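Thread: "does anyone have the structure for this chain?"

Original post by V.I.:
We have the sequence but no experimental structure in hand. Need at least a predicted one for the grant figures.
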Amino acid sequence: MDTLAAVRLTAHLNALRHTPLSAEVAARAVVDDDAAHHVTDPEGLLGLDPFRASELDEALRAALLLVDADWVLVLPRPGATGALTGPPALNAAAIEAGAVVLSATGSHAWLPYRVGPAIQWRIAAARPPRLTLTAAEADRALREVVLGAGRELEELELAPSERPEVTGLSLPAGYGSRSQQAAARAWLLVQATEAALDDDGGVLHSHAVQARARTLTEVRRAAIDSLCAAVSWTGR
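Reply from O.Q.:
Generated one for you, tokens below.
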């Protein structure tokens, strides 16, 4: 799942709209340590050649020209589709990919596919996303969930003794300090909870294992909501 690539793409698509950032610089930032990113546009929704993969900077320029809307990050999972509203084929593809970037008007979607050390983005049609929480509301909800989870884990004597290895996150210029901080905090918690869910924490009793998993899953859900809200530039 290419969560971080989708975060970077969403943030830089929005930065292109709201700052003097160039498509070339944005493309390099999105690619980061990957070998390359290419874009396929089989339906010609961005006006790209439908019969070949295009360079990312070319696709970014096309999106800036043709899509008069901000961009929304969605990190869906089975049973938790987030802001996705369809069509069904897009929902299924987004769940399989684990991430999708949507225009706020619903006209375009970017789906990531890992191809070895590279990523290929496919442009698809989408319906307008269902936006619920603002970045501030999602960050506040995450803080409340984390406080409750800490108490529950302590009661189960399951507070982690070691911190997992995590990578940091920095949004491009144009995002305010609150969004920067909220995104960084949420991304760290997404990584930490996913690492913890892959480890039983030394628990021996099945009831404790299940209780721990429920708590960690709730924190991860809130962290994903906060990350998506902080990165999605909806103007709200």
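V.I.: this helps a lot. Strands lie at 37-40, 54-55, 71-74, 100-103, 109-115, 118-124.
O.Q.: and DSSP finds seven helices and six strands in the chain.
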